[in-house]
Amino acid sequence: MSSLSPVEKTADSAHAFVWNLRVYYEDTDAGGIVFYANYLKFFERARTEWLRKLGIEQRALTEQSGTFFIVLSTSVDYRAPARLDDSVQIVSRIQRLGKASVHFEQQAWANDKLLATGTIRVGCINPVGFKPVAIPAHVFAVLQPLVAAQGSSA
What sign has the CA pseudo-torsion 13, 84, 33, 25? Predict the structure, then answer.
């Protein structure tokens, strides 16, 4: 077993955020493994906690700027199962930051094993017409330095 953490095993750890969770009974399916759709919930929670740590709270963002983020697309590849009581680490990175969207790369790790990888694209919208709008300047300024080295700013 390697002594490297999941973040250290992956490239560009300086731009990553790690969020830990425990697998509960409610997260599992009849086979006793994490239900596949729950990885999207885990990824969502990690992104939200990352933003919160950066001083960006979703509700306050909407109240102050009249904008919010929605998920535009997801893709998840499953590699190994997580099971009841496992400790799982979600590693999140920003691959690309556009004027109105953010592309995240996320990984789920447990017991030194990569469980799942996901790419999630979120967009900033106006809640009235659900039209794309520019990410508020203060949010963009916080996120831009976190774009992973392999990503690009657009």
Answer: negative
